[in-house]
Specification:
73 residues; mainly alpha; 3 helices
Length: 73
């Protein structure tokens, strides 16, 4: 998201300097389409199953991470 924001910022800066011309409405439509597609893809991934069905015991991995972090400090 930071990279996409940087690209949009660069495009708007170049438009302000009159180096390029940007159609803001089309840029907004494209970004809306991309965000909608990403959110629907995320929803489909979460409908497949929860994290525990992937065979990854989430609580155990979180506890292991905290243990390692505390041991290093």
């Amino acid at each position: 998201m930071f990279v996409a924001g940087g690209i949009v910022g660069l495009l708007l800066y170049l438009q302000q300097q009159q180096i390029i011309s940007v159609n803001i409405e089309r840029l907004e439509g494209s970004s809306t389409f991309i965000l909608t597609t990403l959110s629907s893809s995320f929803e489909k991934m979460t409908q497949i199953g929860d994290v525990s069905s992937l065979g990854i015991p989430l609580a155990t991995s979180i506890a292991a991470g905290f243990t390692v972090a505390l041991a290093k400090s």
